[in-house]
Amino acid sequence: MELDELKKTWNLMDEQLKDKQLIRDEDISLLISKAGNSINDLGRFITRGILASLIIIAYFVITSLLDHRLDWFFITLLIAAVPALGWDIHTTRYLRKTRMDEMPLVSVIARINRYYRWMIWEGIVGVIFVITIATAYFFDRGIWTFAPSMILLFFLIWGSIMGFLYWMYQKRIMNRLREIRKNLKELKELKEE
Predict the structure, then answer these.
(1) At residue 142, what are phi and psi to the nearest 5 degrees?
(2) Structural contact between residues 101 and 32, judged by C-beta atoms closer than 8 angstroms
(3) What gap in Å lies between CA 175 and CA 52, rounded to an integer?
(4) How far apart are CA 63 and CA 29, in angstroms?
(5) Angle 73-53-164 (CA atoms, 0-180°, nearest 5)?
(6) Among 29, 123, 149, 182, which residue's beta carbon has the most beta carbons within 10 A?
(7) Contacts of residue 148, Cβ cutoff 8 Å, sequence gap at least 6
């Protein structure tokens, strides 16, 4: 009699463990696919940003050459755009080489954390760059000599540009990176259990 009860209890516990293991495997595969898709989406977004930047630069180069107007301010912007685009291409390639399905979880977490730190520094440098460009443009074009409404318009335009860039940076890059990091943390916790 005791052997039958022990057998029933053993079978019941075995079924519960199988169900728990199945749920755990499903959670792990769901988190892996979710993090992998988020990494790929982020890479595609940054690639589109690079293409848009190239189109904008080409437009400004063509219009400047057609207008025979190539001043120091524009040349400085072009010179600054080259390393910025190079950095974006480097970070996009780095992100695309982060393969959830092929790399150990520890390596993926380390790569995403490194990329996250890079994006924080990129944001800081980007803000300094845009403020420097706006200030240089303000003094180069003599904006302070215009009517107060034009000065206000200048600050509204540059403020809008800063606000848009900040919104895009936070919403499309940093929030996605935080989500990826959260998924990887949950995945690490599930694998450690």
Answers:
(1) 65, 45
(2) yes
(3) 21
(4) 51
(5) 85
(6) 123
(7) none
Residue, of 34 and 165, whose pLDDT is higher: 165
Stretch 75-85: mean pLDDT, rounded? 82
pLDDT tens readout for residues 129-145: 888 888 888 888 888 88
- The Cα–Cα gap between 154 and 64 comes to 21
Q: What share of the chain is helix, strand, coil (3-state, %, to 5)?
A: 90, 0, 10
Helix axes 175-192, 105-140, angle to 10 degrees: 170
Token reading at 60: 């400004």
Q: What are phi and psi of 99, to 5 degrees?
A: -110, 110
Check whether 23 has a pLDDT greater than 50.
no
SS3 label, residue 103? coil
Work out the widest C-alpha separation in the chain, in whole angstroms: 101
**Token code pair at residue 101:** 């399905």
Least confident of 3-12, 43-52, 100-109, 128-137: 3-12
- H or E element: which one contains 21? helix 2-66
H/E stretch holding 104: none
Kindly give, in sequence order, each residue whose CB lies less than 8 Å from that of residue 43, ignoring residues fewer than 6 positions away.
92, 95, 96
State the residue for tokens 């996605």.
176
